[in-house]
Structure formats: C-alpha cells, structure tokens
Amino acid sequence: MADPLILTPSAAKRVAAIAQRQSKPAILRLSVEGGGCSGFQYKFDLSDAAEADDSVSETDGVKLVVDPVSHDLVAGSTVDFVESLGGAAFRVENPQAAAGCGCGSSFGI
Asked: Residue 60 in 3-state DSSP?
C-alpha cells in the first residue's frame, strides 16, 4: 500500500468502545462523499467486514478500512479522536487537502 492510513491509539480506543456497545466488530469505515462546505466530506461508519478491495490498516486490534475511490482522496491521512471543550469527534489529518472547513468534516483538493 503506497500511502497507508494511520488510526491513532486514541481513535482505536474510541472505535473499540463504540463497537463493543453496539455488539459489532471493531472496524471503522472511512469514506469520502461529495458535499460539505469545501467540496468533499468525510463519513465514518462501523463496518461488519472489510471488502476485498478495501485498504486496511490496524491499530491495537481495531481496523480502519477505506474503499479504493475514497483511498485516492485520503491516502497518507491520519484518523484521530479528539476531545475538547467544543465536543468530541473523529478528525482526519489529510495531507492532500488544500482547503478545509472550520469543523474539520469537509475538505477540498
């Protein structure tokens, strides 16, 4: 895999906790959809399994899976879970993003 995705330990811990509460496997699916205030937006879901053509990375037993089309837009990114006074959220640090919105959920290339 040329530009792997990284799931931080903080994000892995949060995914594991959510998955356990929902009785699902600890597999976080990151996808990219058109929309948002900057052109593209990140979407996070728990997945039951990785697809055959997904990119897969693993941290502390938690998998991060990304479909091939989305991978082209997020290659080399780091997925983190951050908590602040404004709330808690998964954040994507995307080296390909040329623009982003204030909330961090959308980006432009």
From this structure: coil
